[in-house]
Write a structure and sequence with these properties.
Layout lengths: L11 H20 L11 H15 L7 E6 L4 E6 L6 H15 L4 H9 L19 E6 L2 E9 L3 H13 L3
Antiparallel strand pairs: 1-2, 1-4, 3-4
Amino acid sequence: MIDGVKHDGPGPLLAFAMIVLLLASAVVDAQDAAAEYGLSLTLEQARTVTAAAKAAAHPKQWRVAVAVVDSGGHLVLLERMDGTQFGSIEIARQKAWTAVAFRRPSKAFEDMVAAGGAGVRLLRLEGATPIEGGIPLLREGRIVGAIGVSGATSEQDGIVARTGAAALK
């Protein structure tokens, strides 16, 4: 009994807090298997990744913004193809940040949200953008940054981002 009111179980706020903690621990557990962070990629490497991504988008006439962040999530390079909506600039950066911060493609979050149930709670995970198009960039097995692409459909953004990521050797 609290304040003269009988409660049958944990309040909704406490229940929500417990669910968030469980979800956060699941994300942390999943990260244990992910690649470790390495030194940040160089500007030249970011240019290589961006050029490959734009080369994949151009012939299909997908107008996209491409953001590359370093291993700390800081913007290294951003390019917006002609005719791309300006809203895609920030979304591309957010997708890249999600991929590097959580050490996994942003599509992993999209899939969890799409599955419903507990996955919907990811929408409250601070900083996570659950939309395909963010890919960690690996060099010698370590995360050196991430690419984020926005402007086409999320599936098309993912194709462009994977092409850019594959260019980093």
